[in-house]
Design goal:
14 strands; 3-stranded antiparallel beta sheet
Length: about 350
């Protein structure tokens, strides 16, 4: 049985700090609540934005095709050394922020409650989009707890109302392969086809009506999307490119998605770029779990993550441990795909 730690950051933002931070720990029938605070850290949002733009530009410079439509001008005079320096500064700033004495009170008590052998789900609960974007896995706490993995959450949530359904013994996946210009998704589809005890239905560049009908009319356990997606309004909203002429925001599918969730849809996987906005929007519909990529993701990285995640998950590892293992294995690609292991993240209801 895993332990659950939920951090709630309330009543503030990076510019003014968070006067009320709570950590709630659940294990079996035991519950502990710890309180603290965090100071202002306006440099974090600036560093993250610089990292994001450089990350996108570096991959374009290296010729790594990404599952995103780029709307920004290229950054000139790209330097790998500059990018590495920003990565180091961002990691140092996150850890420096979390070493604030009032927050250390929380960490010290957590370390007395948690063992290095524990499987731990750690959830960051906030409605501030920039906090959802930050690479929290860089917190050195995770170095000491190899079975801990991070997830993000909104402040407000509810259990979905799920109708009883008949079981067939097979996991049912609806796999949407959207606009494929500039992307090779054969590996994605081949990986899904190779799974045992799974029934996968593929929608290749569907129309909005075709996608809507599949969500309304059939029972699904997992929704999978590959190819192009994007987040807008500083990560508050997301959209997917379902074919070469149509893109859809989550709110344009909300009725169909609510119906699918009520019929048992419990995991959504977006093996596409810039998914924080998608995850936030889906969370408002109370889907239990979503896996997205934090920002632009090269094809090969997306495929390797999916392969390693499915292998771990099929071998009865929990979703959290499967994501951590698949995410960490991406570090071996970072000579060609910088910060690959920073990209996947869970969004938890």
């Amino acid at each position: 049985m895993s332990k659950l730690v939920v951090f709630s950051l309330l009543g503030g933002d990076l510019n003014q700090g968070f006067p009320f931070v709570t950590a709630q720990v659940w294990h079996h029938d035991k519950f502990v609540k710890i309180t603290g605070s965090l100071p202002a850290a306006p440099e974090l949002s600036k560093l993250y934005e610089k990292w994001r733009l450089l990350h996108e530009a570096i991959h374009k410079f290296l010729g790594n095709s990404q599952r995103i439509r780029v709307h920004r001008e290229d950054i000139s005079n790209i330097s790998i050394n500059d990018f590495d320096e920003v990565c180091e500064k961002l990691e140092a700033s996150i850890n420096g922020w979390l070493r604030f004495e009032s927050f250390q009170n929380i960490e010290r008590q957590l370390r007395t409650l948690l063992s290095q052998d524990d499987e731990i789900r750690i959830i960051i609960e906030t409605d501030i989009a920039i906090l959802h974007s930050l690479p929290w896995h860089l917190w050195d706490f995770f170095e000491h707890y190899p079975k801990a993995e991070l997830a993000l959450s909104n402040n407000e949530y509810a259990s979905p109302q799920v109708l009883p359904k008949s079981t067939t013994g097979k996991v049912k996946i609806l796999a949407i392969l959207g606009n494929g210009i500039g992307i090779n998704i054969d590996k994605d589809s081949n990986l899904l086809k190779s799974l045992t005890d799974v029934q996968t239905t593929f929608l290749i560049e569907p129309t909005r009506k075709e996608l809507d009908e599949q969500l309304w009319n059939y029972d699904w356990d997992i929704l999978f999307f590959a190819r192009h997606s994007a987040s807008f309004a500083d990560g508050v909203e997301g959209e997917i490119y379902i074919n070469q002429t149509e893109s859809l925001a989550i709110y344009q599918l909300k009725n169909a998605l609510r119906k699918a969730i009520s019929r048992g849809l419990n995991i959504a996987i977006f093996n596409s770029c810039d998914g924080i906005g998608l995850a936030r929007n889906l969370a408002e519909l109370n889907i239990p779990q979503t896996i997205v990529m934090r920002t632009g993701v090269p094809d090969f990285v997306a495929q390797e993550f999916l392969k390693n995640f499915l292998i771990a998950f099929a071998n009865a590892k929990s979703l959290y441990l499967s994501v951590r293992e698949a995410r960490e294995r991406l570090q071996g690609l970072e000579n060609k795909f910088p910060c690959a292991s920073w990209l996947p993240v869970i969004y938890q209801n």
